[in-house]
Design a protein that fits this description.
Chain A is mostly helical and 262 residues long. Chain A is 77% helix and 0% strand. Chain A has one domain: MetI-like (MetI-like fold). The chains are: A mainly alpha (262), B mainly alpha (283).
Chain lengths: 262, 283
């Protein structure tokens, strides 16, 4: 492609990029607004709304809650996903294909329906809404993903290493600790970090199942009721920044681990 | 492999299977049972009947919500693909290979803002005094601000924004898997640029298009946040109707039946698309 076609192609790229980045840019820019309404004209830069955000005990508590729910649910999903991927991928027990399908099914169901299902169970057992329920909900949406990611990282040649270790007298815990886990580390980290960001971002399950103590997306949701507010922009910018940090972390560790291997 | 080692596979998979059973399969069975109960006044009658399904069959409000959902999602799928395909194509063919990764990464940047926040950002952009209206007013293209926020258009825009990113990724993955000598061979055999595109590149990129369309459909039809935040008020979609039963009306049986309706729609679309749902990823 050359001449006019090239110009058109690049212009199209720029236009779509404008569309894609427009909401993020306005979110971030107007979080530095000096006045309270996050709309043009821009009156900043000012850190006023970030100060207000970090002085708000509800937002801070929601932030802490989200981090805890994210870490706990991501950790458990990764452990469950790893055990299942290793068990089904390496030992190929009878019915492995069916078991794999069962573990993957929650992936095909809307979060709304999963959250609603847990709400019905909680009602049936007369359990109050709680963060424990939210965490369980996040475990079930993330386990299939962690499972799929880790399974995709398992290679036949790793099995030889494991066999060699067993031949040399290592017991199963030793084989898992010294061979399987180190070899799968990039996959495990990817599964953990992706699970964390999905839990961190998840709204509807948390909204349905959280009691008095809520996660950050739910807290932001309640702050939306007051309409457009530069403080909500600041909260959104902080959420975005933390997601980006996790993403960069994931990318960097993965790169470092791969480099170390080759 | 010995029998005991095979059993070990089961033992290792057991925790995940147990979690799936307790946290997913049991709840789904309970949802099914609940959908057979019915709400009368303020009490839930726990004898089985098809009352909720009869209501779904005959209730005009439910029909409207279902129709709205299907329309909005269909429009979203079509527009997302129309925008994403040329976008992915330009990235795959015009952008130099070593920049493609960076460009893609930048293209999915908003993906990492939280879902609630992303919807809120669109409210910000589309509001009466938001960026779009202010820009149009300042350039003199408009004399009065447009009502953009809280309309179906706003829901579609916010949806398309998210799913252009998703579709661009799946289509790009498909385009990259086309061996470059196939289009070259077509050109050698005398096909014009357009013919090569229509008869070689487009058919070979269909897996990415179908996966993108499927993901868009499934994720959009179950989404409550976007229509609730940016669409706000003018019309109601299926997930909003479900949430209305749960939070305002306390009608869990009807909410259960509607959830299953949502589940069945997704399953039907999956069954239709299942054969084509592969990006040709080799394992």
């Amino acid at each position: 492609m050359r001449g006019l076609g090239r110009v058109l192609a690049w212009s199209y790229l720029v236009v779509v990029f404008l569309f894609i980045l427009l909401p993020v840019v306005s979110l971030v820019v107007f979080s530095f607004q000096a006045t309270s309404l996050p709309v043009p004209p821009f009156s900043g830069p000012s850190l006023r709304w970030f100060e207000a955000l970090f002085a708000d005990p509800r937002m801070l508590s929601a932030l802490r809650t989200s981090v805890i729910v994210g870490i706990v649910s991501a950790l458990l999903a990764t452990v469950l996903g790893f055990l299942a991927a290793y068990g089904l991928g390496r030992y190929r027990p009878a019915g492995a294909t069916a078991l794999r399908a069962i573990i993957m099914t929650p992936l095909g169901v809307s979060y709304l329906v999963i959250g609603f299902g847990l709400l019905v169970v909680a009602n049936e057992l007369a359990l109050g809404r709680s963060l424990l329920l939210v965490t369980l909900g996040h475990i079930i949406i993330n386990t299939p993903l962690a499972f799929a990611i880790i399974l995709s990282q398992m290679r036949e040649e790793h099995a030889n290493l494991e066999r060699a270790a067993r031949d040399l007298g290592a017991g199963e815990p030793r084989v898992i600790g010294s061979i399987v886990l180190p070899v799968l580390l990039p996959g495990l980290l990817a599964a953990f970090l992706l699970s964390f960001t999905l839990s961190w971002d998840e709204f509807i399950i948390a909204f349905l199942l959280a009691g008095f103590q809520v996660t950050l997306p739910v807290e932001i949701w309640s702050s939306l009721r007051t309409g457009l507010d530069a403080k909500t922009n600041a909260a959104g910018t902080v959420v975005f920044a933390i997601s980006l940090i996790v993403l960069v972390l994931a990318y960097a560790t993965n790169r470092a681990l791969r480099k170390g291997r080759t | 492999m010995s029998a005991s080692r095979r059993q070990q596979g089961w033992v290792l998979a057991a925790p995940a299977l147990l979690a799936t059973a307790v946290l997913f399969l049991v709840p789904m069975v309970l949802v099914l049972l609940t959908s057979l109960y019915r709400r009368e006044g303020k009490v839930t009658v726990t004898e089985f009947s098809l009352a909720n399904y009869e209501r779904i069959w005959s209730d005009a409000t439910i029909h409207a919500a279902l129709l709205n959902s299907l329309e909005v999602v269909a429009i979203t799928v079509v527009i997302s693909l129309l925008i994403a395909f040329p976008f992915a194509y330009v990235i795959a063919t015009v952008v130099p290979a070593r920049w493609q990764g960076v460009v893609l990464l930048l293209a999915v940047l908003p993906f990492w803002t939280s879902y609630v926040v992303r919807s809120y950002s669109w409210l910000l952009v589309l509001a009466k005094n938001g960026v779009v209206n202010q820009t149009l007013l300042a350039t003199g293209l408009l004399t009065d601000p447009l009502q953009l926020a809280n309309t179906r258009l706003a829901t579609v825009i916010a949806f398309v924004h998210f799913f252009v990113m998703v579709c661009a990724l799946t289509i790009y993955a498909s385009l990259r898997q086309i061996p470059p000598n196939l289009p070259l061979a077509a050109r050698d055999l005398g096909a014009s640029g357009w013919t090569t595109f229509w008869r070689v590149i487009l058919p070979l990129s269909l897996p990415g298009v179908i996966v993108g369309a499927f993901l868009t459909f499934v994720l959009a039809i179950g989404d409550f946040i976007t229509p609730q935040i940016v669409g706000g008020g003018t019309e109601i979609l299926l997930p909003q109707l479900i949430m209305l039963q749960v939070s305002r009306l306390g009608d869990l049986p009807l909410a259960a039946a509607l959830s299953l309706l949502l589940l069945v729609i997704v399953a039907a679309v999956y069954a239709l698309a299942a054969r084509h749902l592969t990006l040709g990823v080799r394992r």
